[in-house]
Amino acid sequence: MRELARRLRRGRDGARLDVDADAPEYQPPAVEADEGVQNSLFGEILDWMLAPLLLLWPMSIAITYLVAKSIANQPFDHALEDSVTVLAQQVRSVDGKIIKSLPGSARDILRADDVDNVYFQIHGPRGEHIDGDRDLPPPAPDEEERSRAGSVRFRNDSMHGTPVRVAYSYVRLERVGDAEPQLALVQVAETLEKRAQLANEIIKGVILPQFIILPIVLALVWFALARGLSPLAQLQERIRTRGSDDLSPIVSSDVPEEITPLVRSLNEMLARLSLSIEMQKRFIADAAHQMRTPLAGMRMQSELALRQTDSGEIHRSLEQLAKSSQAATRLVNQLLALARAENQPQAGTAMQPLELSELARGVVRDWVQASFAHRIDLGFEAPPAPVQIVGDPTMLRELLSNLIDNALRYTPAGGSVTVRVRGNHGEQGYLEVEDTGPGIPPGERERVFERFYRILGHTAEGSGLGLAIVREIAQQHGAEVDIFSNPRSLQPKLPGCLFRVGFPLPPAPPAEEDEPPHYG
Question: What domain range includes position 374?
């Protein structure tokens, strides 16, 4: 330890600072991860615009494919329907026997297709095979279809494992005697190659232009967003180029309508900030002016004491110096109290439920000795029931201490000061300080709350900050301060003052309902 201290002293005196070779190298602190990553408004809007577009695009392709297949089926279905109709016309019944007049050339024409395979089939009334392909599956038995003989119906089926499109129709044969009319089945089927080719051509004609249009749409969306958000960048640049002392409002006529509420709120904040800075400047100027007087008096008394040779004169100068320092100390304490009251948050952890009479009793107890020094009767009147409020105990003690100090300073010797707490039917709680001093004229009662304001003609020592502190703390608690003449004063020349601070009471908890009696 001594060697280390020696080395540190050498380094502090300007000599070379020894470093142990075994000492670990300095490691810079690890860079903290940026947890508060900000979202980009441009990226957010772009995501919400492109995500539905990219989601709907595959759906549109699927729907286009289904529509293309439906469109491709229509002309080929018409061709199948014509083939079934022609084939059905060649089937008839003669003496109960089914005959067909389908020449070989007609068969060749029916099966003539370079792309698809075409099949046909004719079945008799009892399902016997008359002509065509035996492997073509018959339709499912349906009495409703059989009753609608002559109409052509379509279905999807398979032939030798290959999907086919089948057109079929029931042909009503001639009746033999009193027998029931007989129905023959005629079917024509073909594979789906031409349909698939046509559907693919339709899809290519629709999708390929989309591949060309989609990048153009994305570029236009990007350009439109950049163009639409450019006023934000311009507003940002205007604010960035402002001077640090420029708190003038931002001109809202040059911004879009959607940003106007934001600019208006920013202007309101700038106005509040400007007012706050102006108040601080005025406060600092007033405080400097008020501090100049006691400091000048202290300097004058100290210089006078240094020039004196008589011990009595020196003692009197020191007494004046002590009084000036006491006044300066009180002024500094009140300035600090006012600054603390103005910077106290309106709501937070400092606010807590408290009983007003208990707080007032403790403050009055602290001022008893000061009342003896002023030869003033200091009393306290408690309410019959507790008065519960929500507030900051420290700031409320400061409020009441300033009211008591103000009353003791302005009340002549032999007078009285009474601190009183009372409630008002659960609506408000009142804290009153009553004195028998010279009182405050009605025309001055609003101005006494201003900083450093003092009524002419009052000789009591003070800085004019006590009531300003009282008003600031009361406003933070949502309370109101009123000034009245003392109704209990018996001397016309000393009407006295009654300071009344009304606090809002917290809402009472809901009453618990009595449980109904239980009967066995």
Answer: 347-504
